[in-house]
Specification:
Helix 3 packs across helix 4. The chain is mainly alpha-helical. The longest helix is centred in the last third of the chain and has 26 residues. Helix content is 64%, strand content 0%. It is built from 12 helices and no strands. The chain has one domain. The termini are far apart.
Length: 230
Amino acid sequence: MERAPPLPLAIFPLALVVLLARVPAASGVALGLSSMVAPASLAALPALARRSGCRLLLGCLAATAVVSAPYALAGRALLTAPLRVFLEERFLEGPYLLVESAIPGDAAPRLAALAMVLGVSVWVAWRRMRVEAALLWVLGAALLVTPVLRPWYALWILPFAALRLAWPWILFTGLAFLPYVALPVGPLPSSSPLPLWVHLAVWLPLVALLMRESWRTWAARFPAPTVPGS
């Protein structure tokens, strides 16, 4: 049974990545610390390093190495828990089901989902987005295609959604806790079927609002041609 990390411990380092953006080495240290509780944040490393330079990369690597050093004797066991969650468990999966239906196999859909997140990170790096925007895009992509969405995972994106006024994600952070309504007794198990209404209530508003915003952005960037004199 998986236990939730202390939420301030999970969210505060991610917020520091933005607050310390003008000091790339310190921002990198914060990113390294956040990766200890939110491994998905490492997917944003290429994008952030491209914008802030090598000092952010070195800070992240140094922080990760220092924090991991006391556990070095654990060897492969240090990676067992996150890999087990990623490769074996499933909970409140949403758009990931589309990936799974398109790609057969057990590990292949999960690896494809990981490749999608890394692809978003490369695109964000190419666009040289601001730090909070980069984290919003990369963590958002990770949440969309994850096979395991624990309700508290959604809170990792909340600071950046608030900074960017990303209302679909702000709404999502509240709806992601509906499994506690469907399974009200005790901690959420590592794998448990949920009623269909929970999946629909959590994912449909987010997907619909994101599609609506994408359409508006597309229409603004590529307006319909106008006929002269009309």
